[in-house]
Amino acid sequence: MNWEAYTQFILDETMALLAIDSPSGMTQRAAEHVMARFAALGYAPQRTRKDGVLVCLGGADMDDAVLLEAHMDTLGGMVAEVKGSGRLRIDRVGGLRAENVETENCRVYARGGAVLEGTAQLCNASVHVNGKYGDTQRTLDTIEIVLDEDVKTADDVKKLGVRNGDYVCFDPRARVTGSGYIKSRFLDDKLSVGILLGFAKYLRDEHITPARGVWVHVTSFEEVGHGGSASVPQGVTEAISVDMGCVGEGLECTERMVSICAKDSGGPYSRDVVNGLVAAAERMGAPYAIDLYPHYGSDVEATLKAGYDIRHGLIGSGVYASHGYERSHKDGVLATLKVLVGYLG
User: Fold this and answer.
1) Residues 64, 118: Cα–Cα separation, whole Å
2) Upper half-sphere CA count for residue 166 (Cβ side, 13 Å)
3) Is 102 an annotated catalytic residue?
4) In terms of pTM, does the model score above 0.70?
5) Residue 137: beta bridge partners?
6) In angstroms, rounded to a whole number, what is the distance separating the alpha carbons of residues 245 and 51?
7) Would you say residue 327 has pLDDT above 90?
8) What integer best gives the mean pLDDT of the chain?
9) CA–CA separation, 111 vs 161, rounded Å?
10) What is the pLDDT of residue 1?
């Protein structure tokens, strides 16, 4: 098996998706891209009303099917006020934190179609002018968007078409290093979408029909809590979120492993599913860790809260600096793919 080729395919797919701005609620272009990529692999993806992508990967028993959930929506901002100075105050989309966007380049998507560049800066950002620069708490009230346009008043900005409610998207700064690390904003969860495309390619290339039916749902509102709450096909008895694995103090997972979550802020995951995922990792020789995530929720929990009677699990390539400038590694990507192959393929 040429695992290296599948890993490279996943990284290429991830980089292409990272290049498309897609904060929660503005995922139409990303959905079109994901649909085209599944179609290129020979599948027949469907667009959901919430701009998600649903695709069947086949399987012998469609009455005991597994739903794999990943999300293409990301954190972002939304214009909350056009200030008299011509600067923009933003509100968060999802769990965006001001500390993690200061000095980042961004794009403002005006409803009229214009896309304007800018930068997130501390209010009064010049160190040689602001004697309290280091003492200022970074919040969305002290960080503002400085447009790269000749604007000095709110009217100047509005003449460019910018209004309250326009999206602000931050540059992902995506790159893959020679040592195999992938660094970018929004690996959560575009890296997992790449992994699911890699799994779909594996099934098609190897002419494998899984014993159980397999569906993929690439959701569009995970970062705001309701991505997986709908569009569960008939016959699904189990759902697995393929999302980022957490890396940090008190956890065993690294970026070069697949993380299997036993419990997060929503409570324990299905013991049978967790045990099955662990067995698949060991069978496939995939480096793994079992961890608990204290500040985490997933698509599959939204599925459960919507009332679906299913078993549930969560895996993902280890990702460091979650919701910031994130980092994973191709070894963790391959380990996650191997678990899916061992569990379903």
Assistant:
1) 49
2) 24
3) no
4) yes
5) none
6) 25
7) yes
8) 97
9) 7
10) 84
pLDDT of residue 45 exceeding 90, the answer is yes
Domain residue spans of the chain:
3-74+186-344, 76-170
The CATH superfamily label for domain 76-170 reads: Peptidase M42, domain 2 (2.40.30.40)
Print burial letters for 139-149: b (CB count within 10 Å at least 16), e (below 16).
Answer: ebeebbbbbee
**Active-site residue identified among 222, 223, 255, 301:** 222
Could you check whether 3-74+186-344 and 76-170 share the same CATH topology? Answer: no
Domain 3-74+186-344 matching CATH 3.40.50.2300: the answer reads no
Q: Nearest to residue 298, comparing CAs of 285, 280, 316? A: 316
pLDDT one-digit tens code per residue, 250-294 = 999 999 999 999 999 999 999 999 999 999 999 999 999 999 999
Instruction: Please name the amino acid found at residue 71.
Output: H
**Phi, psi of 319, deg, nearest 5:** -130, 125
Query: For residues 301, 305, 311 and 312, what is the CA-based torsion angle, rounded to 10 degrees?
Result: 0
The pLDDT, as a whole number, for residue 78 is 98
